[in-house]
Write a structure and sequence with these properties.
Layout (H helix, E strand, L loop, with lengths): L11 H26 L4 H22 L2
């Protein structure tokens, strides 16, 4: 059974997805800056920051559903 979608109404799932992506990107950047200041080498810092951003973004996406 499908529910009609009213025009101009933002579906909750899309808001959750956008929020998760935005939070994930900001966490990635923040983690990269923190790891850079801590002296972690470039590639390692990017990988760790990307993993952190991915996990936090996914958590925000799923927790908001």
């Amino acid at each position: 059974m499908t529910h009609p979608v009213m025009p101009g109404v933002i579906k909750r799932g899309s808001v959750s997805l956008i929020g998760g992506i935005v939070v994930g990107i900001f966490v990635l950047l923040l983690a990269r800056l923190v790891l850079g200041e801590a002296g972690v080498p470039g590639t390692t810092a990017w990988i760790a920051a990307a993993a952190t951003g991915l996990v936090v973004g996914a958590y925000v996406r799923l927790a908001d559903l």
